[in-house]
Amino acid sequence: MTANQSNLEGKVAFITGGNRGIGLETARGLGKLGAHVVIGSRDGERGKVAAAALQAEGIQAESMKFDVLLADDRQAAYAFFEQKYGKLDILINNAGVQKEVEHLVPMNETSSVTPDTLRETFEANFFTLVELTQLLLPLIRKSPAGRIVNLSSVLGSLALHSNPEAPIYNMKVFAYDTSKAAVNMFTIHLAHELRDTPIKVNSAHPGWVKTEIGGQYAELDAAEGSKTSVMLASLPVDGPTGQFFFMNNQLPW
Questions:
Q1: Which of 75, 115, 220, 238 could tie 224 with a disulfide, CB 3.0–4.6 Å?
Q2: Residue 156 CB neighbour total at 10 angstroms
Q3: How far are the Cα atoms of 29, 48, 60, 173 from residue 57, in angstroms, in the given order?
Q4: Of residues 104 and 251, more confidently modeled
Q5: Catalytic pick from 85, 169, 176, 217?
Q6: What is the pTM of this model?
């Protein structure tokens, strides 16, 4: 699969958790394709610094103080895009947490994961992702070619976790993995609901990336980790929907 990565002029993109790491590189990649990118950052000042850095590269960028966990911030994001642009073309649900282990190394502590860790992980990675997407969907429907990219992980794949031959078989990070499996199910369901519209909804595995979540043993840098999200955000009209990708490779659910 290849995407037509020349069609983002005039598009407005919102990247949650966009002031650093994969989110910032996704904003940079979309901006280089002509999109006007809006960075959502929990730290307003860091968001401004990130947007200024993109602007210095010739990218149309701005930032907003945005914490996906806060209902007021989600409402403020809707009001911002509705009032300033009247639409939203691209939503990158990039923000997320991993609270169980410092580095994603082979492990399995399923029997001792606390209810608080499960709830906090699902709140950040799943429930608020769904709430934000539902809230912004009326604006995405106003786009001639809306794109929703949900940041998942190969660690959310049931097929691979149950396969002893899979490279992730021993990487059982229970709360994080199950939250990403839930994100994948949301992708499938929302894509089905929107199948007769121009909107495409896909899950992205960024790869094992050197970020706070990925840890020091990760293989890819953030720029490489952003490529799948940029690809899915710039899909042509005949591109896939309701699928799970790493780069050009479709992953099993």
A1: 220
A2: 25
A3: 11, 14, 9, 38
A4: 251
A5: 176
A6: 0.93
